[in-house]
Amino acid sequence: MMRVKFNGEFLETEHKNTLDFFQSVSKNESDVWIVNGFATKENLNLNENDELFCIEKNIMPPKDALDAMMRSRHTPKLHDKLKKASVAVCGLGGLGSHIAIMLARSGIGHLKLIDFDVVEPSNLNRQAYRVSDLGKFKTEALKEQINEINPYISIEICTLKIDENNLKLLFKDINIVCEAFDTALAKAMIAQNFHKYFPDKTLICASGLAGYGDSNSIQTRKIAQNFYVCGDLINGAKVGNGLMAPRVNICAAHQANLVLELLARNNDE
Question: Among 120, 184, 229, 235, which lies 20 to 30 A Cα-Cα from 73?
Answer without folding.
Answer: 229
